[in-house]
Design goal:
It contains 19 helices and 20 strands. The protein is α/β, with parallel strands linked by helices and 557 residues long. It has three domains: 392 residues, TIM Barrel; 52 residues, Alpha-Beta Complex (Oligo-1,6-glucosidase, domain 2), CATH 3.90.400; 72 residues, Sandwich (Immunoglobulin-like), CATH 2.60.40. The strands form five sheets. It has an eight-stranded parallel β-sheet with strand order 11-10-9-5-2-1-13-12. It has a five-stranded antiparallel β-sheet with strand order 14-15-16-20-18. Strands 6-8-7 form a three-stranded antiparallel β-sheet, with no helix packed on it. It is globular and about 75 Å long. It binds 1-O-alpha-D-glucopyranosyl-D-fructose and calcium ion.
Length: 557
């Protein structure tokens, strides 16, 4: 039995809103804060406890808000500070909590700090960022950006290179400068005083750069890997312990780090001694599975059951009793999970969406539902580059296709499968034009399947993915074994079925999910496992699971 201290953020289910694509209230085709406020009853009805809202701060939107030019101002396209206050009030009035996105590894190059910093080497803001002289007329080292190209940009005005681990409009902040930490901690406190209930911390694992040595180069890679110098360093953990003391310990917050890394890193970030964060996201089952060559995620590599199960089971068993974890398969950076891990054909979309939801929500840790996941929304399958909006896509195209290294048809195939745009098509509310997302021209095309995949039809359909997710969430709020039970892997080599147990105080939960579109033998699926809590089929065949069948059985002491 794992002795687990109870906490509200362990018992919560979190829903991620990507404001740009959630709901447009003023007809400009861009989602906004009033659009979120207008749909809070929908989120309450789903049963979620916490809303994590992707950045809504002033930004030139080079990376859709993950490039902040003023941390204490609302992006004009999203509304005003009064609109924010109204949204926060609406969230709290419904007994939910709001988590904001802390993007503090980097700012926008249009932030006044950077504008001042580049003006002169004597500027008091110079050391807010990471400036270096070139080396032999070139970049200071061989690091590559996450978004293709070099991680260094030469600035004529400043007469030096600056570091940007993402786009060149996202200069990395210099956390080694105590003034930068003061600025960030003051800003975090300012938002906590306004009443927000937590932070999702963007690429927080990168803030503690320990050296600027050339990084290792994978075969075929064009740039070196900054990981050994920047990722999960002792310096990062030192800064997080300082953040905990100076800000986080003063409030009752949910803090989740977008850190990645391995279980040993997560145990340090979210250890039970509570010196840093509550929990972190891991990405070995998403980016990790396909990030196995110099092209990174751009590949035909799939997500087979044996690989996904090995990763998720390793994380479940490694963290329990040592740290608190999270479950997700979707967010604004990942393709739609039913298209990637399930089967988005008209025949199997609903069944497999429910199966994946069961797999995630019965595990140990805090589940994160990404907007539209609860509807079984799918990838949009763009066929040409001009349909995409994401800077990550354009930078990758420039580096791999324009250079002649990759055939356009290959890249288009990979983009359709895994580009972030797949998650950013507008939320599908109903069957009215543009799926009810906007009365104007949507900033991104609406997925044409909105006529059959939309919130209005699903809320009213007892067999919808929405109502299945609602039941999954209600189960987490009912049974402690689902939240606090020990995770016990089962059938670890089964070619079709992903199964596991959860055990707490004599209660035994058995979870079985058929990952395939064929009947699968499964001796576990019979009445000896206790009462059935939920399934995506009305009836069953003992000893078998139907295609994409999920079953949860509970045997009480
Ligand atoms: O993402 C970090 C990150 O590396 C992701 O961009 C993701 O791993 C990548 O897209 C997969 O190829 C965070 C935010 O979630 C993302 O939206 C931002 O673009 C990025 O940081 C920079 O702020
Ligand atoms: Ca709008």
């Amino acid at each position: 039995m794992i002795n687990e201290k109870r906490a509200w953020w362990k018992e919560a289910v979190v829903y991620q809103v990507y404001p740009r694509s959630f709901a447009d209230s003023n007809g400009d085709g861009i989602g906004d804060l009033n659009g979120i406020t207008a749909h809070l009853d929908y989120l309450k009805a789903l049963g979620v406890d916490v809303i994590w809202c992707s950045p809504f701060f002033a930004s030139p939107n080079d990376d859709n808000g993950y490039d902040i030019s003023d941390y204490r101002a609302i992006m004009p396209e999203f509304g005003t500070m009064e609109d924010f206050d109204r949204m926060l009030e609406g969230v709290h009035a419904r007994g939910m909590k709001l988590v904001m996105d802390l993007v503090a590894n980097h700012s926008s190059d249009e932030h006044r700090w950077f504008i001042e910093s580049r003006k002169s080497k004597d500027s008091p803001y110079r050391d807010y960022y990471i400036w270096r002289d070139g080396r032999d007329g070139r970049e200071p080292n061989n690091w590559g950006s996450v978004f293709s190209g070099s991680a260094w940009q030469y600035d004529e005005t400043a007469g030096q290179y600056y570091l940007h681990l993402f786009t060149k409009k996202q200069p990395d902040l210099n956390w080694a400068n105590p003034k930068v930490r003061d600025e960030i901690f003051d800003m975090m406190t300012w938002w906590c005083e306004k009443g927000i209930d937590g932070f999702r911390m963007d690429v927080i694992g990168m803030i503690g750069k320990e050296n600027f040595d050339d990084g290792p180069m994978a075969p075929g890679a064009l740039y070196g890997d900054f990981g050994p110098s920047c990722m999960h360093t002792e310096t990062t953990h030192k800064y997080l312990r300082e953040m905990r003391k100076r800000v986080l310990d003063k409030y009752d917050l949910l803090t989740v780090g977008e850190a990645g890394g391995g279980p040993e890193d997560a145990i340090r970030y979210s250890n039970i001694d509570e010196s840093e964060l509550n929990m972190t996201f891991y990405f070995e089952h998403t980016d990790g599975l396909c990030d196995h060559n110099e092209l990174g995620k751009w590949s035909d590599h799939g997500s087979p059951l044996n690989e996904v199960r090995a990763v998720m089971n390793r994380w479940q068993t490694a963290l329990q009793g040592k740290a608190w974890g999270t479950m997700h398969m979707s967010n604004h950076d990942q393709p739609r999970q039913v298209s990637r891990f399930g089967n988005d054909s008209p025949l199997w979309r609903v069944k497999s969406a429910k199966m994946l939801g069961t797999l995630l929500h019965m595990m140990r840790g805090t589940p994160y539902v990404y907007q539209g996941e609860e509807l079984g929304m799918t990838n949009i399958y763009f066929t040409e580059l001009a349909q995409y909006k994401d800077v990550e896509v354009f930078n990758a195209w420039k580096q791999w296709v324009d250079s002649g290294r990759v055939h356009p048809q290959d890249m288009l195939r990979w983009l359709a499968k895994i580009a972030r745009d797949n998650a950013r098509t507008p939320m599908q509310w109903n069957t009215s034009p543009n799926a009810g997302f906007t009365t104007g021209m949507p900033w991104m095309p609406v997925n044409p399947n909105y006529l059959s995949v939309n919130a209005e039809s699903e809320v009213n359909d007892p067999d919808s993915v929405f109502n299945y997710y609602k039941k999954l969430i209600a189960l987490r709020h009912t049974y402690d074994v689902i939240v606090y039970g020990e995770f016990v892997p089962l059938l670890e080599d089964d070619p079709s079925v992903y199964a596991y147990r959860r055990v707490l105080d004599g209660d035994t939960l058995t979870v079985m999910c058929n990952w395939t579109d064929r009947n699968a033998p499964c001796a576990l699926s019979d009445d000896s496992q206790g009462e059935e809590l939920i399934s995506n089929y009305p009836d069953h065949k003992p000893g078998f699971l139907f295609p994409y069948e999920a079953r949860v059985m509970l045997k009480r002491k």
